[in-house]
Design brief:
By secondary structure, the chain is an alpha/beta fold. The protein contains eleven helices and 14 strands. Helix content is 36%, strand content 21%.
Amino acid sequence: MPKAICIGELLIDFVSTTTDVTLAECPSFAKAPGGAPANVAVGLAKLGVDSGFIGKVGDDPFGDFLRQTLDQNAVDTSYLISGTGSRTTLAFVATRSDGSKDITFYRNPGADIQLAPEEIEEAYIQSAELFHYGSVSLSHQPSRDATLKAIRCAKDAGAFISYDPNLRLMLWDNPDEAKHWMWEVMPYANVVKIADEEWGFIMETPSLQDGSARLLEIGIDLVVVTRGEHGCYYNNGLNQGYVDGFGVDVIDPLGAGDGFVAAMLSRLVPLSESVLDDNQLRTIMRYANAAGALTTQKVGVIPALPTASEIEDFMSGRH
């Protein structure tokens, strides 16, 4: 059984091969496997953490490609279901040199949101030390109920729980519904990672200190805000601060946050029973910042996710 389990969307990203042009203007795209929770599962596997993924793809060539990709990256796909009633979700991504995201999804309805509660195997989830989820699978039924069932199962089993809201408003029927469900699953998490561009929508305050204090009050142990090239902010109630990022020439910014999360979790889980001091937190955040920077160095997320030795080599040359 895997040590870490991620649930959510697994899809194909078609990434523009030309930087800073609109999707309409882009002449060509590179096919890349993606989906934030699946990216984290692969990121963990590349860092030596046994991981598994729960989700649904279409019974189609793209779904076959995605399953093969996870298998090739040593992610357990025992509970990756190939559904016959819908096709694998696609996303078209315009690459921006400033790291901003311009994404159009093709999901009608999309296999990823067809995962049903009865397809959740509780014994599988109960075996995991770490459970990670996002909000995209909460946007529609039946995957909303399936995700809620899995989260509650992991919580009841005592897993260390990680949540990345990963705001994609165009996938929701309306913003109010998105905000409601993002908050509905917030209290289950031990650690929450929010990107700075999502912060204002989710938290309704520009203050990282005030917003993170609110999250800590509802029972979250660690709040992390990723800030792109500027690194990250962290707050565990006892210690808070900023850790600088690493300057790199960005090739594809998509998935940098997923690389960050995987690296952070790989270091947090062995210490999940401990109250971390400021030095430990800063060390973990610097390691995660390095992973995020490295993830921007290739087109497509999964091919770019770094190994532990790649992160260490990258950090050794920088101070």
